[in-house]
TrEMBL record:
This is Signal transduction histidine kinase subgroup 3 dimerisation and phosphoacceptor domain-containing protein. It comes from Streptosporangium carneum. The keyword Transmembrane helix applies. Keywords: Kinase, Membrane, Transferase, Transmembrane, Transmembrane helix, Two-component regulatory system. The chain crosses the membrane at residues 6-28. PANTHER family: NITRATE/NITRITE SENSOR PROTEIN NARX-RELATED, SENSOR HISTIDINE KINASE DESK. The lineage of its organism: Bacteria, Bacillati, Actinomycetota, Actinomycetes, Streptosporangiales. Residues 47-106 form the Signal transduction histidine kinase subgroup 3 dimerisation and phosphoacceptor domain. GO terms for molecular function: phosphorelay sensor kinase activity; protein dimerization activity.
């Protein structure tokens, strides 16, 4: 009888241990499934934010520039100018909201902004050529150069009568050189007005030990040039 009791107790203990093991395994599986679900939700949210920024942000940027140009051309019509001013302000608020929603989920890039510039300039009937003569860029360098392209194209449309634009990225002896050039510069006016963002570009690129300069050549082309050492990777 004692032997039989021992066997029963041993079997019961075995069943209990197996049950505990199965319970622990199920709990671990549940935690893993929840973690995978949370990652999937996070990825979906980030993807949505990127889509919002890329698709909606692009058209808001285009609408902002076109509205600003129309606002300037309506100088002789106070009523129309007032309505355009309100529309422009609304578009800017919407663009700010889009940037806020997608903040931290999307970073500017050279490739993204050069592609966006081609599409935007084409919508204005401007011929845009992009030339790239270097390999894959470090993310932070790509983001900085993307900012230069966006600022250059925005100011180009605001202050110039452009028919052609060339965006060129080259590399020589470890130095990346981005040139955003257009044929619509005016020699009677400075290429950039105060507060146009050029100082911000210089500050950002200086963080990568790079430089930014702007000039108008004798050929009538305005050039915004940024140079960054390739060694500054993430």
């Amino acid at each position: 009888m004692p032997h039989q009791l021992y066997v029963v107790v041993a079997i019961a203990a075995g069943i209990l241990l197996v049950s505990l093991g199965v319970t622990a395994a199920l709990a671990l599986r549940i935690r893993r499934l929840r973690a995978e679900r949370d990652r999937a939700v996070t990825l979906a949210q980030e993807e949505l934010a990127r889509d919002v920024h890329d698709i909606v942000g692009h058209w808001l940027w285009l609408a902002s520039i076109k509205s600003e140009l129309a606002y300037r051309r309506a100088a002789g019509d106070a009523r129309l100018r007032g309505e355009l001013g309100e529309a422009l302000q609304a578009v800017r608020h919407a663009a700010h909201a889009v940037r806020h929603v997608s903040k931290g989920n999307r970073q500017l890039s050279f490739q993204g902004e050069s592609t966006r510039a081609e599409a935007l300039l084409a919508s204005f009937g401007i011929d845009c050529t992009v030339r790239v003569e270097c390999s894959r860029l470090p993310r932070n360098v790509s983001a900085a150069l993307g900012t230069v392209i966006r600022e250059g194209v925005t100011n180009m449309l605001r202050h110039s009568a452009v028919s052609r634009c060339v965006i060129e990225l080259t590399e020589q002896e470890g130095l990346l050189r981005l040139a955003v050039a257009n044929d619509g510069a005016s020699r009677r006016e400075p290429p950039h007005s105060p507060g146009d963002g050029l100082d911000n570009l210089r500050h950002r690129v200086a963080g990568l030990s790079g430089t930014v300069r702007a000039s108008t050549g004798d050929d009538g082309w305005f050039r915004l040039i940024a140079e960054v050492p390739r060694k500054f990777s993430e």
